[in-house]
Amino acid sequence: MKSDYVNSYQDLIVWQRAMDLVVEIYKISEKYPNSELYGLTSQTRRSAVSIPSNVAEGRRRSSRRSYLNFLTIAYSSGAELETQVEIAKRLNFGKKLDFTKIDDFLSQVMRMLNRMTYKLRTQ
User: Fold this and answer.
1) Counting Cβ atoms within 10 Å, is residue 57 exposed (0-12), middle (13-18) or buried (19+)?
2) Closest CA to 113 of 57, 51, 71, 52
3) Does CATH place domain 10-122 in 3.30.540.10?
4) Which of 42, 41, 44, 77 is nearest to 58 (CA)?
5) pTM for the complete prediction?
6) Cα(86)–Cα(2) distance, rounded to whole angstroms?
7) 3-class secondary-structure state, position 31
8) Do 12 and 55 contact (CB within 8 A), yes or no?
9) DSSP assignment of 62-86
10) What residues contact residue 120 under an 8 Å CB cut-off, 6+ apart?
11) Are 22 and 51 contacting, i.e. CB atoms less than 8 angstroms apart?
């Protein structure tokens, strides 16, 4: 039985959803053209990985201010990822790629990060 108390960053729903997002980004970016391996594929993956990584690192920090800083970085990486996903959609790459799961996870993660940073700022 899980309590409301968060023992670890792995207990955070935002971290769990961000990890789901990373998996979906890797799946879809495998379908990008080989010419994008060192371009959009690499950059998109780095942005996606940055989100749960910064949530985790911030959670392990000893101060609220530091945690807030890392959540802000995660949120910024999310905005970067939103832009890269939009670029991939516009380029179309000649394939029918379904971004539905990515859009859903990314939206959830961004809302959660926004709420978390707001709460930490107002406490």
Assistant:
1) middle
2) 71
3) no
4) 77
5) 0.92
6) 37
7) coil
8) yes
9) SSHHHHHHHHHHHHHHHHHHHHHHH
10) 64, 67, 68, 71
11) yes
- Residue of 27, 9, 18 whose CA lies nearest to 52: 18
> For 60-97, how does the pLDDT look when each residue is reduced to its tens digit (9 = 90+)?
998 999 999 999 999 999 999 999 999 999 998 867 89
Q: What share of the chain is helix, strand, coil (3-state, %, to 5)?
A: 80, 0, 20
Amino acid at 48: A
Q: What sign does the dihedral 7-9-15-20 (CA atoms) show?
A: negative
Over residues 20-69, the pLDDT tens digits come to 999 999 999 999 999 999 999 999 999 999 999 999 999 999 899 999 99
Instruction: Please state, in angstroms and rounded to a whole number, the distance separating the CA atoms of residues 63 and 48.
Output: 25
Q: For residues 117 and 72, is the Cβ–Cβ distance under 8 A?
A: yes
Alpha-carbon 7 to chain mean position? 21
